[in-house]
Design goal:
binds iron/sulfur cluster; 20 helices; about 40% helix; 6-stranded parallel beta sheet; binds cobalamin; Rossmann fold; pyruvate-formate lyase- activating enzyme; alpha/beta; 14 strands
Length: about 500
């Protein structure tokens, strides 16, 4: 259990567990920040909290084996100084439903603590049945988990009922709760990064060499409605942000814990809006005030990159921004429109060039497959990616998440989405993967191989190295090697139809 990232503790009131899932080769290990946020809130309420990261323990590209998950969970309980009073499991996503089920079973055998789950899948209509009939938990939290989990802990300590906790769904009520969104994010304490291990390295395209890295979020929510994405269901449709002062405190605390590199994973840290440049200025001045002098990466929509002034882009560069990750998805406007991405290939191409000419690495994500696509479309998406001025690219099959418009389009009237997620042919790694009569899943797996091999060429590597500072050369070479040689292997099971069983 080398990577469990649980710090030795003398007493545990609340045990928080991050369930494992099928990870992509070379995707690194990203800390469960949602649990670190919840832990910090619970500690304010005087609870002794422990975080156990089973995802870090199971770095497998297959669906984690249920028996192994059960064994490791048993060992976790054996290593605890005392049985916990309360167990929290999450973030629950389609990819970790089976492992979460196995973890709950062991928790039930090992202790009598009430078990609650939370995470992106919980607000999706139909989750009540999943929570009560499949996972067999005592409740599920929809939306932000800090305040509800704090209330659950307080009610537990006072031996009160859990009825009426914001965002909480209970087996006794069939009403699907309204997701709880913390209105003022500044009330959230700095996440308990000290409860996480030191081994987190983030993903290959985000690898930052041997520097100590963490992830961070300075906002929650996304106002866009891309048909395939469940982020707005998970974190809300309105963007809520930390104030400049709170951003400075968060970054300062990363500095004091020795983190030299941060990945800001916010869905919409900056959007194309009238006050975009002011927001960038707030952010970069907060970094300056924090005294932290590391480097960072952030996620941005292509239209936000284009809407930004030159001054804003250079502010980002000067404050340590080394890489901007953009969701580009496709090279055809019609396909982008169908996905409601609100993006054109021209905007994507211009955004890549702009990021590069600002001296920042450009990275893009692409989706292979989609409604009305034929095999040639997979290849034209890869060709488009290869033509762009990008340093890194990530290619994924199209996953169909319950609660999204895409899910409704493909499975209208399907309320029992759990059975689809547990169908090992349809969801070989836990996520339901799109395919059609014209584009079988094996074709998509072949296209993924082709994509990584074509994109990560020697000539692109030399260009990326040439325009990067010397101290980043080794990291770029290693990332290219890993992405070209192993990333696509994550999908080998699809190509050979050797889908993992559980
Ligand atoms: C950063 C990120 C990642 C990172 C880090 C994930 C991690 N270890 O936390 C990486 C790159 C590793 C990753 C991997 C994956 N991701 Co991801 N990821 C995100 C992203 C952009 C932000 C998540 C986040 O950290 N938010 C900030 C923190 C503070 O919020 P949070 O984790 O959601 O936690 C809060 C609540 O959910 C809740 N909560 C969470 N856990 C618990 C537990 C309890 C007990 C309680 C009460 C509450 C609770 O309270 C927390 C605090 O408010 C979201 C999009 C989004 N906006 O949600 C997609 C998203 C969650 N990912 C998604 C997917 C599919 C995946 C992968 C399966 C991809 C893959 N095939 O490999 C894996 C699964 C990993 C996992 N176990 O989460 C989907 C999930 C869709 C679904 N319905 O299944 C999302 C919604 C994006 C999308 N494509 O639509 N992801
Ligand atoms: S893909 Fe990005 S912009 Fe689109 S809904 Fe998801 S988070 Fe928002």
């Amino acid at each position: 259990m080398e990577n469990l990232s649980c710090r030795a503790v003398r007493e545990v009131d609340v045990l928080l567990i991050n369930p494992p899932y099928a990870q992509r080769y070379g995707s690194g290990i990203v800390p469960p920040m949602g649990l670190a946020y919840i832990a910090a809130w619970l500690r304010q309420n005087k609870a002794h909290v422990m975080i156990t990261d089973l995802a870090a323990e199971f770095q497998t590209h297959d669906l984690p084996n249920t028996a192994d998950v059960a064994n490791v969970t048993e060992k976790v309980f054996q290593s605890l100084p005392n049985p916990p009073c309360l167990v929290g499991i999450g973030p629950i996503v389609t990819a970790n439903l089976r492992p979460a089920h196995a973890i709950v079973e062991i928790c039930r055998q090992a202790c009598s603590a009430p078990i609650f789950v939370g995470g992106p899948l919980c607000p999706v209509p139909g989750f009540h049945a999943v929570a009560t009939k499949y996972l067999n938990v005592d409740g599920y939290v929809c939306g932000d988990g800090e305040r509800p989990m704090g209330a659950i802990w307080q009610r537990f300590a006072a031996r009160e009922t859990f009825i009426g906790v914001d965002g909480l769904g209970l087996p006794s009520s069939t009403d699907h709760p309204v997701a709880f969104r913390e209105p003022n994010l500044d009330v959230l304490p700095i996440p308990a990064r000290d409860l996480l291990g030191d081994h987190y390295q983030m993903s290959a395209r985000r690898t930052v060499g041997l520097t100590k890295a963490t992830s961070a979020f300075l906002s929650r929510g996304c106002p866009y409605s891309c048909s395939f994405c469940s982020a707005p269901i998970s974190s809300g449709r309105r963007i809520r942000r930390f104030s400049r002062e709170r951003i400075a405190r968060e970054i300062e605390s990363c500095g004091s814990l020795g983190y030299e590199s941060i990945v800001f994973y916010d869905d919409c840290l900056f959007v194309a809006s009238r006050d975009l440049d002011r927001k960038v200025e707030d952010f970069t001045s907060a970094i300056a005030v924090s005294g932290w002098r590391g480097s960072y990466q952030l996620e941005l929509r292509c239209d936000a990159v284009l809407a930004m002034s030159e001054i804003s882009l250079s502010r980002l560069r000067e404050s340590g921004c080394r890489q901007i990750n953009m969701g580009i998805e496709k090279g055809h406007k019609a396909q982008l429109d169908l996905m409601r991405k609100r993006l054109t290939p021209e905007t994507a191409a211009a955004a890549c060039s702009r990021v590069r000419s600002a001296g920042i690495r450009a990275a893009g994500t692409f989706i292979l497959g989609g409604i009305d696509e034929v095999p040639d479309d997979l290849h034209s998406t890869v060709e488009f990616a290869c033509e762009l001025d990008l340093d890194f690219a990530q290619f994924n099959p199209l996953a169909v998440y319950p609660g999204t418009l895409l899910f409704q389009q493909l499975y209208p009237e399907t309320e029992n989405w759990l059975s689809l997620c547990l169908d090992s042919a349809l969801a070989p790694f836990g996520d339901i993967l799109w395919r059609s009569a014209d584009v079988p899943i094996e074709e998509i797996a072949r296209a993924l191989h082709f994509a990584y091999e074509s994109f990560y060429s020697d000539s692109r590597l030399e260009r990326a190295v040439e325009r990067s500072p010397l101290d980043e050369h080794q990291m770029i070479r290693e990332s290219y090697w890993r992405l070209r040689n192993s990333r696509a292997l994550s999908w080998t099971g699809l190509a050979t139809a050797e889908v993992p069983t559980c």
